[in-house]
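Methods — Computational structure assignment.
A single polypeptide chain was analysed. Its primary sequence is given first, followed by the predicted tertiary structure written as structure tokens.
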Amino acid sequence: MNSLGVYAIVFYVNDINATLKHYEKIGFNVEVIKEGHLKIALSNFEFEFHDKKLETIEELKAEANKDPKGNGAFIYVKSNDIYTDYESIKESGAIVSNISKRPWGTIEFSITDPDGYKLMIYQLSNE
């Protein structure tokens, strides 16, 4: 299994334009791959957002149309300056949780996107 690797996670969304606006508003560089497909690249990893209405493969279409979106999924994104990032994202008007120190050694906050997916922005508390 050493030859396997993860390079991206795909999230189906209800409104691709709302997703684009949300992630741009909070400061991510979002690339439009093609109609209905967005990409956010962070280091060596990519998040892709696909418009569920444009899925044509039946097996994937069934999954894309399941609702509600975002339940139980947390995307962890490491920050090098958690307090500055928190203030910047909060000022953008995004739905942001309170920043808090966790018992597992992180300082973190969450951002909820239009489909309910949660980005957990974190920094190790000893950094």
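Note: DSSP finds three helices and nine strands in the chain.
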